[in-house]
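Recap from last week: sequence in, structure out.
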Amino acid sequence: MGTREYLLDKAKKEGIEKGNREEAVATGLEFKKRVCL
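Predicted structure tokens:
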């Protein structure tokens, strides 16, 4: 559980650092879908 949240948070932070918030959110949602299914 902690690892999943960590990876999700990491993806968001990396996206924001690159100045691409939308991509970070999309990546996070896509990652969530893959983990849940």
